[in-house]
Design goal:
Blueprint: E1 2-15, E2 18-31, E3 35-39, H1 46-53, E4 61-66, E5 69-70, H2 76-85, E6 87-91, H3 102-111, H4 120-129, H5 145-157, E7 163-167, H6 175-190, E8 195-199, H7 202-205, E9 210-215, E10 218-224
Parallel strand pairs: 3-8, 3-9, 6-7, 7-8
Antiparallel strand pairs: 1-2, 1-4, 4-5, 9-10
The structure holds adenosine-5'-diphosphate and magnesium ion.
Length: 233
């Protein structure tokens, strides 16, 4: 079963009375464990699509089934529950809480989950997993950009989501740090995490098995590669 199934998704923004169409009928299926990138130039609608997939925004028309449930029929409460438990977000600007240390930033999503007690050992494991054990009590301003993004990735995984969404995750990083972060995404994919990365850089997209190109709100091309076992350097 697909984790995500989008059919004929359109999105228009309304500025006053005039509609600005941004997405023009997107069809997309994403299976469990898939590693996908969405590429396209600035303004092509990548973040708009990502926000719809992440239940941050609703489409103007079309259907969206997430883990077998129709998103259209969900209440705001159900949507926020899904955002807190099913979806992990990673942003270009990291979006960490600057006053909180690494541990507390990663713990945060677990504190929003009513069904599960905030689990300190999960947090510790994730911080170790992203290689920041030595920085656990540091605040974001004491970390490099790459380390901050590692914290953000650990935080995104904390609630055990079925889907990891990353919108230009290396957009603020130099090329060496970009390679490090992409290696981490590659490894998470190998471990079975379902990942969607939005990027305008084709080099980043080359890491993933499927590449979808957006052009003016339409999918222009789809590339599906064979699975390889070797991780890129
Ligand atoms: P990308 O992420 O590919 O750069 P976006 O999805 O951010 O593209 O934006 C696609 C188009 O939608 C752009 O023309 C942008 O100006 C417009 N847009 C994005 N968000 C809004 C908004 N909240 N209100 C109006 N227009 C928007
Ligand atoms: Mg964008």
């Amino acid at each position: 079963m697909s984790v995500i199934s989008l059919r004929s998704i359109t999105k228009s923004y309304y500025l006053g009375l005039s509609a600005v169409p941004v997405l023009h009928g997107i069809d997309l299926d994403i299976e469990k464990g898939e590693y996908l990138s969405i590429v396209g130039s600035s303004g092509s609608g990548k973040s708009t699509l990502m926000n719809i997939i992440g239940c941050m925004d609703k489409p103007t028309s079309g259907s969206y089934i997430l883990n077998g449930k129709n998103v259209e029929n969900m209440t705001d409460h159900e949507l926020s529950e899904i955002r807190n438990t099913e979806i992990g977000f990673v942003y270009q600007t990291f979006n960490l809480l600057m006053r909180k240390n690494v541990f507390d930033n990663v713990l945060l999503p677990l504190q929003y989950m009513r069904s599960r007690k905030a689990d300190r050992s999960t947090v510790l494991k994730l911080i170790e997993r992203v290689g920041l054990k030595e920085r656990i009590y540091h605040k974001p301003n004491e970390l490099s950009g790459g380390q901050r993004q590692r914290v953000a990735i650990a935080r995104a995984l904390a609630a055990g989501p079925s889907l990891l969404l990353a919108d230009e995750p290396t957009g603020n990083l130099d090329s060496a740090t970009t390679r490090e972060i992409m290696k981490l995404f590659d490894e998470l994919h190998e471990e079975g995490v379902t990942i969607i990365i939005v990027t305008h850089e084709h080099e980043i997209a080359q890491h993933t098995r499927k590449i979808i190109t957006l052009h003016d709100g339409r999918t222009q091309s789809r590339i599906f590669k064979k699975k390889t076992n070797s991780l890129r350097p």
